[in-house]
Design a protein that fits this description.
By secondary structure, the protein is of the alpha/beta class. Helices cover about 40% and strands about 15% of the residues. The chain contains ten helices and ten strands. Strand 7, helix 7 and strand 8 (about 205-210) form a beta-alpha-beta unit. The protein is globular, with a radius of gyration of 19 Å. It binds pyridoxal-5'-phosphate. Pyridoxal-5'-phosphate binds next to helix 2, helix 3, strand 7 and helix 7.
Length: about 325
């Protein structure tokens, strides 16, 4: 028997208790396996992108443009997802093309996305370059959508809000009542969506572990704007919530993409107890904070949101 696969609607991802990891830490830890799924390990990014690209196709878009770091999970996920949606993807990547592409870049190449290398520029400059390239495509007669960094748009946030609700339902089925969800945060869509899901359900906000400092001029204000845009999109029947940033900056370390001892040790503990991988750029840093807090005596149940990003491991 074959099943019809709905490109627009993400499948529910598993939630389960990490028994051996929890025993090693002395605190119950659940994992939301949002690293599961098709499309080249697209992780939580695929939730945002599937919503955004479905809307783009409905609007007659034929070309999508996005910028990001060379090992961007979002850009790699876009390179893959553009294909089944029948779209041309043009990525604007930070730095220079390496001699031997690895990880995300290798997948991006395999998907045949068009890539422009931006050199060593700031994140805002990179975003401005992507705007310029989108303009060039428009002048060539294409119908273009310029995606924000990390696919963190109001649609993307709404897709994550659905994911947060999916988690709440799964927790209720397990009769689990965690004190917080711990996840890695960068462009803010994951934070904004999970923050909204928790606030709309009157449960504690997520612990959003920042893994990059210089992504926006004002991170808190940008995140607040994202929450606001999503609330506007949800319409007047949705209560207007007052956003308060709850960002954990303790794990950035020397900077984006730089491995920390804490992330490495946490990744090793998860691998050795459960046979599960995390990358050390995103999910490993969030897991590091979770481990540190458990070792400091916080023994309440928590959820680790595994958002994907595994190609970075290779
Ligand atoms: C694996 C992974 N986890 C978490 C995040 C953070 O999500 P967001 O950009 O929505 O803050 C990213 C962003 O690129 C990611 O690739």
């Amino acid at each position: 028997m074959t099943e019809h696969w709905d490109l627009e609607t993400p499948e529910a991802t598993p939630l389960r208790l990490l028994e051996r990891f929890s025993a090693a830490l002395g605190a119950p830890v659940y994992i939301k396996h949002d690293d599961y799924g098709p499309l080249s390990w697209a992780g939580s990014k695929s939730r945002k992108l599937r919503a955004i690209l479905a809307a783009a196709v409905a609007d007659g878009v034929d070309t999508v443009v996005m910028s990001g770091p060379a090992q961007s999970n979002s850009c790699r996920a876009l390179a893959a997802l553009a294909r089944p949606f029948g779209l041309h993807a043009h990525l604007v990547l930070h730095g220079r093309r390496p001699l031997n592409p690895t990880g995300n870049l290798k997948i991006t190449d395999a998907m045949g996305a068009e890539v422009t290398w931006a050199g060593n520029v700031t994140f805002p400059y990179l975003a401005a370059m992507a705007e310029g390239i989108a303009g060039e495509h428009r002048r060539a007669g294409r119908r273009v959508m310029l995606l924000p960094p990390g696919a963190s748009s109001a649609e993307g946030v709404e897709a994550i809000l659905h994911a947060g609700r999916e988690l709440a339902q799964q927790l209720a089925e397990l009769s689990a009542d965690p004190v917080e969800v711990v996840h890695a945060s960068a462009s803010g869509g994951l934070h904004a969506g999970l923050w909204l899901a928790s606030r709309l359900a009157d449960s504690p906000p997520p612990r959003s572990v920042m893994i990059v400092r210089e992504i926006y001029e004002d991170v808190e204000a940008t995140y607040a704007a994202l929450v606001d845009a999503a609330l506007t999109r949800l319409g007047p029947e949705c209560p207007r919530l007052a956003y308060g940033a709850s960002l954990d900056w303790s794990a950035v370390g020397p900077g984006y993409g730089m491995v920390t001892g804490e992330a490495l040790a946490a990744a090793q503990l998860l691998a050795y107890t459960e046979g599960i991988l995390v990358d050390t750029t995103y999910t490993g840093k969030a897991l590091g904070v979770l481990v540190r807090r458990a070792r400091e005596g916080h023994s309440d149940p928590v959820v680790f949101w595994h958002s994907g990003g595994l190609p970075g491991f290779f």
